[in-house]
Amino acid sequence: MKKICILDYGSGNVRSVFNIVSLIEKQVVISNEPKDIIDATHLILPGVGAFGSSMKKIQKNIPLELLKTAVFNQKKPFLGICVGMQVLADTGHEFGIHKGLGWIPGVVKVLSVDSLPLPHVGWNNIEVVKESVLTKHLPQNSDFYFVHSFCFEPKNEEVVVAHTNYGTDFCSILQKDNIYGVQFHPEKSQQTGKILLENFLRI
Amino acid sequence: MKKKRLIPVLLLRNGWLVQSKGFSEYQNLGNPITAVKRLSQWASDELIYLDISTDENYDMRREDLHNPNRHTIFEILDDVSKRTFMPITIGGKIRTLKDIEDRLSRGADKISINTKPLEDKKFITQAAKQFGSQCVVVSIDVKKIDDSYIVMKNSGSEITKYGAKEWAKIAEECGAGEILLNSVDRDGKKNGYEIPLLQEVSQAVKIPVIACGGAGEWFDFAEAFDESAVDAVAAANVFHHIDQSVYLAKKYLYDNNYKVRPPNLLGIDETL
After folding, report:
1. What is the structure's pLDDT at B56?
2. Closest to B85 (Cβ–Cβ): which among A122, A143, A187?
């Protein structure tokens, strides 16, 4: 039986993530309780907002050592969404320089878009560059819903599963072992978002 | 590549989905939640809900809260966010930051404000600072008066001192993330968008402009994209009256090489 724990650190979009995941699996909780993290088979870290303030809330509200054990020792599938993906980096350069979780080497920087407006808001397609279980059954160049001004620049290109173009190519899906991250919002991306989440929950 | 968007607008009056003509005549179209299911299946890019109840009607509704056929904006939001997984904008009756927070916490992704910023433009900045520019849509109702585009307030009933272009620029400077641009004259007329207005405003600002008011056939969407720099086309009536409307509109645009998401029809049991 699968048990999904959506980590709750005061991020805005937790409810939408819960709603869509509940369509796929029955046992879903929004929680940061040690018990729920221990019981979970899959962990999701949602996110809306700035890097620094999100990291602060994560450090304050989530039992990180326990989470690390679940992710690194027990190898539970972990999905970071939007800022939840960005905080996996070493540092974030939004309103100053902030330390991230450092689970995937890289930095988070503002999108270099020339004259295009920021944030990058709207439907944009991904281009898959590396095979991953996350992108199974997705049509070529699937569109997802994005809302962000910053992007993850990984140190090692091998973690990049897909990128997206908005003035520049940026990493929109990454994976390192059992750790996954998506820059877009699958919970707002209708059918393609649901397929991607199904892929994650099937791992 | 980022896509141009097709956005159905749902006008709510006393909890009912209505059709509007010239911002003054209304016809009841039924249950707003049933409509969402259809619009989801036709793969709309976003939804905009505008609560256009008058204050008087609002009070009437309060007395009738027990009537299950009537829905508050919050009940609608609760239901909608369980049934559909696309960005949702809510407008109408937003006067305070608390009003915004209430809507965002119930599943809205963006809010649309119209009259309040015309009375106090700092409200845009406050909202953007607290919730982020990306969720602040400033809706602008415009009427053509003596060959100028004049901004109207209070559901298009009162003239303001602002020209459309001027007010759009102010809204952008104050921190708006998007402009929802409505032509009061074209509302419900089905004779196409007010193209010169779309041109004027979309050239003046960098933030995305959503065209609204006047769409009657698929070609009208194409014309708005051809003739102006709008980022999205919105419509109410045309999307509610034709079966598979959003799908068909998108198919028309997609087949004619407009940069929209591919048309898609989801199964009856798929509520995404």
Report:
1. 45
2. A187
- The length of chain B, given as a count of residues: 272
Q: What is the ipTM of this complex?
A: 0.87
Subunit contact A119:B272, Cβ cutoff 8 A: no
* Residue contact A16–B266, C-beta within 8 A: no
Q: How far apart are CA B2 and CA A113, in angstroms?
A: 13
pLDDT single digits (tens) B146-162 = 999 999 998 889 999 99
Q: Does B222 touch chain A (CB under 8 A)?
A: no
CATH 3.40.50.880 describes domain A4-202: yes
Residue A99 pLDDT level (bands cut at 50, 70, 90): very high
Shortest alpha-carbon distance between residue B104 and chain A (Å): 8
Listed residue (B1, B4, B29) closest to B14, CA to CA: B29
**B144/B151 Cα distance (integer angstroms):** 9
Task: State pLDDT tens for residues B36-48.
Answer: 888 888 999 999 9
| Contact assignment for A193 to B208 by CB distance below 8 Å | no
Distance from CA of B75 to the nearest CA of A (A): 15
CA dihedral defined by A185, A191, A194, A196, rounded to 10 degrees? -80
Q: What is the dihedral of CA B237, B241, B244, B246, to 10 degrees?
A: -10
Q: Domains in chain B, start-ordered, CATH in brackets?
A: 5-255 (3.20.20.70)
The answer to whether the CB atoms of A119 and B177 lie below 8 A apart is yes
The contacts of residue A33 (CB under 8 Å, 6+ apart) are: none
